[in-house]
């Protein structure tokens, strides 16, 4: 079951309060300036516009702004057609607060100011004392501003936490790639040392054996003994080098991939690397970058609790599969990150595919080299 964020529950609770106020107004419709059915339709459209604004994906900002503008205007109409229902002013406060996730702060404060003016206009005929009217309107202005600033602060904190989590994943991936580069450089250094050391010792061994072949008796034996010592030193050097290079690529890759998703806030990342997976350097880099992109996208868009990443060997193909329990996407449109992942695997002779029907799934593959 997908996790519902705490801020979503808070928004639903505020909408529930607004609906309860609407029910209260309908139960005593004496102060309505339009027919009850028309007011109920107007109120329902307002709640629907607010819900649509909250549920529309962030990738469609124009639709969000349009539905929010409709919610604001409909909210004014709801209040102006029922001016005697004072609790309806809370509806305008809620609408203004919702705008913090859609519009810049300056624009939302402008909405709060206009909402307050609408409240003042709706109640101007009901209050004979100008000072009381000014006090009430001023209080609602402060309530609007405090609600907008509070929601904006919460959203900014969430954004900073998300950016920090993404930076953490980027840093872990960069560390893994740096370590892999260091290991590659170390292997190159050892190979050069092997060439220089073993080449020199083999040359000495060949010369000693050649000298022994042209001599007899004790003099030949001396060259044979020297050749034996060189051979033993050569064997020791080879064993030492092999010991230094003896690592399990699968275990190293698994540990590296686990590190990328480790400590991701609010996301449990499980990584499994099957036996027999032996990518080369280019493939390992592509896999590391793919996992980094998958974890980052999950943190940024999926609203998921768990992410599963499997790396298997499938009929001569190294296949990476990732799936989360988030909200998915009915029509996934790969951005720069996913497009770059696909291009990277295609350059290795493989490819990548994406599916958002049930959570979000990524499949990438490359042939074994």
From TrEMBL:
Gene3D superfamilies: 1.20.5.1930, Histidine kinase-like ATPase, C-terminal domain (3.30.565.10). The chain crosses the membrane at residues 6-26, 38-56, 62-82, 89-113, 133-155. InterPro entries: HATPase_C_sf, HATPase_dom, Sensor_HK_TwoCompSys, Sig_transdc_His_kin_sub3_dim/P. One of its GO terms (molecular function) is kinase activity. SUPFAM superfamilies: ATPase domain of HSP90 chaperone/DNA topoisomerase II/histidine kinase. Residues 186-248 form the Signal transduction histidine kinase subgroup 3 dimerisation and phosphoacceptor domain. Keywords: Kinase, Membrane, Transferase, Transmembrane, Transmembrane helix, Two-component regulatory system. Residues 268-336 form the Histidine kinase/HSP90-like ATPase domain. It comes from the Bacteria. Coiled coil: none annotated. This is Histidine kinase. It comes from Nocardiopsis suaedae.
